What does this fold into?
Amino acid sequence: MNWLSKPVRGLLLDITGVLYNSGEGDGVAIASSIEAVKRLQASDLKIRFVSNESSNTRAKLAAKLGRLGFEIQEEQLFTPAPAAASYLRQHGLRPHLLVHPGVQDEFAEFDMTDPNCVVMGDAEREFTYQNLNTAFQLLIKLDRPQLITLGYGKYYMETDGLKLDVGAYAKALEYACDIQSLVIGKPNAEYFSAAVADMQLTIDETVMIGDDILSDIGGAQKAGLRGVQVRTGKWRPQWENHPIVTPDGIVDNLAEAVNLLLAQNAA
Ligand SMILES: [Mg+2]
It folds into this structure.
């Protein structure tokens, strides 16, 4: 496969749909991925877990992954909320939040009394008509409406089926307000580059593995990375001939990618 035609020193791994499928409670681990992550953690490869997960703080996400059987340090996790908080800080912004209650702690430092932007994550049950309309009313009255989204996915897979993701709701507000979101998270190229820089590697030495052909594979390729599609999570058979994105590799699951990669590195 051409994703192995150049040396690989680092991996960026998507979490949901690659390590586990979310759903009731902690969701369900993809069994072969537990062993695969152990083998990677024991290898010379550097790893960062690059997720658009926006319903948990990093600490809570690391703890949840631990309960599912994955030993992952909080420092190895890249999630959009801390990146968004640092953007708000740099630009002196006061957010109105339309996010999942589980991630609100990441924004505890901000004054929200007179908001000048809206931050939207995967709010799940908080995506009510009332909450969307409040965000709309706030944006439409601003001179320069700014909508910041934590990721921009269309949908994701849960144990009981596909679920609408934040991008679908963001589109509604973009349409109503004639604006474009600032996306913090995948598929934003800067988000991938920050994770690569954190490993002190180059784009050329790094491969992204994910289940979302646009956000993970297409996004990684736009950032100059190789992108490998897994046939787990939200993967759909028709993506094998996707009109926009051709992955650099397609594997059944993370375990197959790890087998191929470690065999190649040992040769
Ligand atoms: Mg995923």
Q: What stands out?
A: The longest helix spans residues 254-266. The chain has eight helices and 14 strands.
